[in-house]
Amino acid sequence: MNRERMAEGIRTFLEGLLADRPAAGAPGAGPTDAARIAERVAAAFADDLCGGYAIDPAALLRPMPLDTAAGPVVLRDLRFVSLCAHHLLPYEGVAHVGFVPRGCHVGLGALARVVDALARRLTLQESLTAAIADTLERGLAPRAVVVVLEARHGCLAHRGARQPDHRLTTIERRGETAAELDRLVLGR
Length: 188
Fold this sequence. Notes:
single chain; 188 residues; GTP Cyclohydrolase I, domain 2; 2 domains; four-stranded antiparallel beta sheet; 7 helices; 6 strands
């Protein structure tokens, strides 16, 4: 990522946004503050909101052999924040991840880190759901994977339809026994 170019673009945006404001406007939001604001926004995007681009999610999975057969593994309510690729507005929610092992397992923290690394990018929720399932399917070769994301989108809450109380649910199912995971992952 090129923070300098990011800050330059944000500074240009702010100068256009604040062009008609008097310099004596609200403190911290006037044209003279554009450079400082741009640097902070660029840092927030590079370090936090889009920091997942610097992480290889597949490398986070370190499969360990299983000595015996294992039943479904389900990890629910993993908090995440992502950025809508259409509007650059955040969406946030929870991920529920389940899989049926086939010869290997993985630390639970690795599942949470995969969700976080893939979420901290510009992506649509549907694409994020599929990317998490793809990563788990390739990295663990499980019998089945189910990924469910439930999120509230800034672009639907604060613009357009202005529906602050919505929740979007996306589901990705993979494998031969994905149906048996639905009850556990979806809580139904």
